[in-house]
Design brief:
InterPro entries: WH-like_DNA-bd_sf (IPR036388), WH_DNA-bd_dom (IPR027395), WH_DNA-bd_sf (IPR036390). It comes from Actinomadura gamaensis. It is a single chain. By secondary structure, the protein is an alpha+beta fold. The protein has one domain: Arc Repressor Mutant, subunit A (Orthogonal Bundle). The protein has 6 helices and 3 strands. Strand 2 and strand 3 form a beta hairpin. The radius of gyration is 17 Å and the shape is elongated.
């Protein structure tokens, strides 16, 4: 049961979790929701894009440049597998250490 190291990093996990609940999200919305700086989001989104998990789209709203992030199909699959792995780990019974000490 290996957790995907690309998703496992705390900030990337927050980003992927947020994107999994939407079709697409504006950069500033993701930044504010995850409470990180522009540079941290850029770096982490770039890592997710390199892994094929996130698509970054640039465009304009009026004259203002905008950036949107969305999970790719590969990213959605990887996130679903990550969550399933966590559920398997959490679903395992805890060892009762008090009985072992007796």
């Amino acid at each position: 049961m290996n957790l995907d190291p690309v998703i496992h990093a705390p900030v990337r996990l927050q980003i992927v979790s947020l994107l999994a609940a939407s079709t697409e999200a504006e950069f500033s919305f993701v930044r504010d929701s995850v409470e990180i700086s522009d540079s941290v989001l850029s770096k982490q989104a770039g890592a997710l894009e390199t892994a094929g998990y996130v698509e970054i789209r640039k465009g304009h709203v009026g004259k203002r440049p905008r950036t949107w992030l969305k999970l790719t199909d590969q990213g959605r699959t990887a996130f679903a597998e990550y969550v399933a792995t966590l559920q398997r780990i959490v679903g395992q019974p805890l060892t009762d250490t008090t009985q072992e000490a007796s």
